[in-house]
Amino acid sequence: MIERRDVFQAIADPTRRMIILKLSHGPLNITKIGEDFGISKQAIAKHIKILNECGIISMSQKGREQVCEAQLGQLDEVTDWVTESRKLWNQRFEKLDKFLKETKQ
């Protein structure tokens, strides 16, 4: 069975979030991405594979290097979810506040 990956899996891991942040400043090769992380190249490659499968980054071959580029539009799904969740919770808190005010009187 093939596992379907989504944007939420991409951002669930702090290392992947840092990779996305690094790539948000421009394309980088895999070696540059791996700098500043205290983990193996294989671990970085696994994170990059997941980000690529989620559509958060694209990969291209430039000479002998693989270059990764952020596809930040994919994060709109997260933004939309957060916006809708915030609306829902604000409504619930407003109802709770109204209820508490009514019961206090």
Give an account of the 3D structure.
- With 105 residues, this protein is an alpha+beta fold.
- It has one domain: Arc Repressor Mutant, subunit A (Orthogonal Bundle), CATH 1.10.10.
- It has helices spanning 7-11, 14-23, 30-34, 41-53, 76-104; strands at residues 28-29, 57-62, 65-70.
- Strand 2 (57-62) and strand 3 form a beta hairpin.
- It is elongated, with a radius of gyration of 20 Å.
- The model has no long low-confidence stretch (mean pLDDT 90).
Write the layout of secondary structure elements.
Elements: H1 7-11, H2 14-23, E1 28-29, H3 30-34, H4 41-53, E2 57-62, E3 65-70, H5 76-104
Antiparallel strand pairs: 1-3, 2-3
Protein name: Transcriptional regulator, ArsR family
InterPro entries: ArsR-like_HTH, HTH_ArsR_DNA-bd_dom, WH-like_DNA-bd_sf, WH_DNA-bd_sf
GO molecular function, one term: DNA-binding transcription factor activity
